[in-house]
Each structure stands twice: as structure tokens, then as C-alpha cells.
Amino acid sequence: MGAEDQEDRIDQSVDLGGIMEKGGIWVWVEHWEGMERAVAHELLGKARELADRMGRQVVALVSGAKAGQAAERVQGHPDLILVLEAPGCPKPEAWEYIQALENLCRDGSPFMLMAPSSLRSMEWMPRLAVRLGRSMVSEVTGLDLGEGQTLLVRRPLHGGRFLVELESCGLPPYLVGVRPRAFARKEGSRMAQLERIPVEAGPGAVEVLEWFQDLGLGPELTEASVVVAGGRGMGGPESFQMLEELAGLLGGAVGASRSVVDSGWRPASQQVGKSGKTVSPDLYMAMGISGAIHHIMGMDSSRVVVAVNRDPNALIFNHADYGVVEDLKDFLPALIQELKAKG
Questions:
Q1: For residue 157, pLDDT beyond 90
Q2: Are 236 and 46 in contact (CB under 8 A)?
Q3: How far apart are CA 260 and CA 229, in angstroms?
Q4: 3-200 in CATH: which number?
Q5: Helices 98-108 and 125-132 meet at what angle, rounded to 10?
Q6: How far is residue 277's CA from residue 340's CA, in Å, rounded to a whole number?
């Protein structure tokens, strides 16, 4: 079988012309085994807001194992939900459907395709942008419409020191990766039409050898409203037990600096920064973190930052709303005890 035959494609017997309008706003729904990420609801709510202003349709795209369950759970904002089904390709990774997505975009001519700005979306969005010859932007924190219904996009630059606003000038569709928690979750009451679309999904250039799911306690790091992160100033891996306890009391997740991960104190899944994950919590607590620029780039959109460090000259204080100069061995036990006392 040649490479052309192995590409995934939409079944030509499926006619979407009668149910899918041109120029809609599409949202790619990331999920695992039917459980959608919280960011899916944030994106769908924003898509609904913009689509109503434009008089357009909202379309949700779901694929992979138990996609039907995820589709049912994202009802409320979409007008149409497309479930891409491919026998022999059970895992919900969009890069395995890249040709089908290209065909859908060419046939459906969306105004915009939104997805979470995540490691998973970065596997396929740039590829799709190249295939379509269209623009793509990631790490987006703001979306609006300009005059003539152009797309206005806001994103941080240089570790959050600047915010840049971009205006669309090329042809749609515009591919947009949005940071989790950039938009508030909104409830909706629409019941979308659900269509199952058979596609052939080939292995492409990447072979998945093994799947591993992180079953850590608490919310997923990028979607947590509270992040308690530790750096080398924690002193050692055993001290992170206090951060785990503190995060549990606050209903948050534990993060870590790159130096901590490189030292083997915490898993890579908890790394915050340019080479790790980007977070946008309501509260970011930086414990014993120096404030290197590559770390700041991963948490610069946090709403409130509290820094604790015994070095009064630590760079992290330049990015903090509240700062405490204190030894963590004294500060953390006292804080945990106080939170427990208040129930």
C-alpha cells in the first residue's frame, strides 16, 4: 500500500452540506477515555459568544476512544458535534486524523479552529496550518472581533512582560491554541446535533509504543485554580510532602521548577516553565523558586502570585503580588497548621 493510500480521509459517502454551515467557529475537544478536559468548556463558551455576534455556527470536533461519551458531555454551546470514528485507531490523537481534518476544513470553510494550547495540540496544529497554508497562533489569552469581523488575538510575549494584540489579515480558517483558564467557563442550554463521521486514520510518521496516564492526586496542573510550586529552595524531595499537603488543603495542584525536575525530586509532568507546562491559576504560590525567566514564562498569566523565599533579592519577587522573606522550614508548617485550624 502506498503512502497516499495510508492517509486518513473522510468517507466520501458522508454529506455534511445540509447540516454544517460555512464560516463557523470550530472547537477541538481534547479528552481521555471519554473524560473531556475542563478547557473544552471554556473554549466552547468563548466560541458561542463570538459565533452569536457573527451569526455563525459552533461546531465541536471529537475523536478517539469513547469519543461519544465526551461528545455528550460537551453539550450546551455547540450547534453541531462531529465525532470522527476510525476503526483501528482507538486513541484520541488529532495528528492521526490530520488528513481528515484538512478535508473537513476545506469542505466546511470554518472561520476559526480553536484547540487547547497544549503539548498534544502542538503535535497537529502546525501540521494542519502548513497543509492549509493558513495562519496559526498559540498561547492565546484573549480573543475578540475587530471591524469587519476580523479576528483579534492577544497573547503574552517575553515571559509575560508584554502583551501583543494581533489582527487577522489573511484568509480563514485561523488556527488558534488557547491557554487553559484564559476564559471563564459558561453554562449553555443548547442540544447539538451529533453526527458520526467515518474516517480512515493511518499511522502517519509517528508510532505510539506505550500509553501512560498520570494518576496524580488533585486537579490537572494546567487546569488547577491553585498551583503550589516548589524550587531548589525547598531543600530536598522530602520537603515536597508539605507542598502536597498544602495543595490538598487549597484544592490545588503541585508544580515544580526545572531544576527540581532535573534533580529528580519531582516528575516532569509537574514542571512549570518554558520547557514544561504553562499555567494560569487564580493563585500561584512560588515556594523557594528563584524566578528565572524560563520559569516565569510558564506562570506569567497567573492572576495572583505569592512568593516565599529567604533571599530578599530573589528575582521571583519582581513578578509577585505578595512576597514573604522567610525560611520555608518555618513558613510552610505554620501556614498548613493555620489552614487546618480554620477548617
A1: no
A2: no
A3: 10
A4: 3.40.50.620
A5: 50
A6: 30
Residue 178's identity, in one-letter code, is V
Write down the mean pLDDT value for the chain: 88
**Taking the complete model, does pTM exceed 0.85, yes or no?**
no
Contacts of residue 42, defined as CB under 8 A and 6 or more positions apart, other chains included, come to 178, 180, 181, 182, 183, 184, 185
Sign of torsion over alpha carbons 300, 165, 60, 103: negative
Dump pLDDT digits (tens) for 164-199. 999 999 899 999 999 998 898 999 999 999 999 887
Measured between alpha carbons, how far is 135 from 130 in angstroms, rounded to an integer?
8
Domain(s) labelled CATH 3.40.50.620 in the chain stretch across: 3-200
Residue 3, pLDDT > 60, answer no
Task: Fill in the amino acid letter for 11.
Answer: D
Number of H helices, E strands in the chain: 9, 18
Distances from the Cα of 91 to the Cα of 37, 63, 82, angstroms: 15, 8, 16
Query: Does domain 221-341 bear CATH number 3.20.20.70?
Result: no
In angstroms, the CA 89 to CA 200 distance is: 9
pLDDT at 209 over 90: no
The sign of the dihedral angle between the CA atoms of 254, 259, 261, 264 is negative
